[in-house]
Design a protein that fits this description.
It comes from Enterobius vermicularis. Helices cover 0% and strands 44% of the residues. By secondary structure, the protein is mainly β. The strands form three sheets. The protein has a three-stranded antiparallel beta sheet, with no helix packed on it.
Amino acid sequence: MACCAQSLECYHGESHLGDKPVGYGTCMNAQFGPVQYCVKATRMHNVLRTCDDLHFCEVMMTPCLYCPRKAL
């Protein structure tokens, strides 16, 4: 299996449905360095991104961007 998931769409921790990504990044396995675990969910008209152990993304800046992993 590949070590990395490519072409992530990165958003802030909370954004509106339909918002454009604010950037792109590369997901890596935990063994390659610090990571932020993330998942995308919806509530009302917002897209909420909180942490779990199924989605992970590289911490790129402060405040970091939450990057939902695309399905392969």
